[in-house]
Amino acid sequence: MSNISFDFSGERILITGASRGIGYGIAEAFARAGADLILLAESDDIFGAAKRLSERAAGQVQAVKCDIADPRAVARELNDLDRVDVLVNNAGLELITPLADMSASTEAAFRRIFDINLLGTYYVTRAVVPKMEEGARILFTASIWSRVSVPEFGAYCASKHAVLGLMRSLAGELGPKGIRVNAVCPGWVRTEASMRSLREMSSRTRRREEDLLAEITGNQVFSGLLEPDDVAPFYLYLASDAAANMTGQALMADRGEVMA
């Protein structure tokens, strides 16, 4: 965990995909920094996450259950917000989608990944920007796979490449309004989604999970698997005044796996 401190007292932060993993780690970090939080996810788990954070957060914590791939639901759930200072577009879906798999389930997964990672992110941003004033910030969770790619994760890699394109376009579009737009590209972080991908890779290659993980982390300059707490400070930095002159940028949070 970082010893660097930030103060977001009085600021309202909306974080999507905040019920677990990186999203929950980001929420914890902003809570420690005094922010008021709006946590959004598609499952009921978001209410438990909000309750846990509210018990130790200085600011207010609100939970919103919403499938961001449904534009009507997004508009309905976010319509009554009067102000958002920081939007963290973190919600995402990571599934294996091999080209050779012609099944209906894989095709459905491909579409769902784009519906959440790209379209859902667009819907949320479109709904929130009217609630933002000059000085607001928008952050995207991309991935190292937005800069490189791996076999059999075509939908996920393509969607994250698209997220970076969207981020850069919005940085130019919203810059005149005084809104900064940046992204964080995490490497392998110990989350439910990444460990599921590891299991699937192990099953398909018939290699042990520990061997695959050793190979993955061996590509990093600094060894070891990242934890959500390791990644969260990148978001606080980009949301802080320390990054006041940054927009349209993608920070690699990957222990040196992909050199920018």
Automatic annotation (TrEMBL):
Keywords: Oxidoreductase
Record has Glycoprotein as a keyword: no
KW Oxidoreductase (keyword) present: yes
A Pfam cross-reference name: adh_short_C2
GO molecular function, one term: oxidoreductase activity
UniProt xrefs under SUPFAM superfamilies: NAD(P)-binding Rossmann-fold domains (SSF51735)
PANTHER family on file: DIHYDROANTICAPSIN 7-DEHYDROGENASE
Sequence similarity: Belongs to the short-chain dehydrogenases/reductases (SDR) family.
Protein name: Oxidoreductase UcpA
Originating gene: ucpA
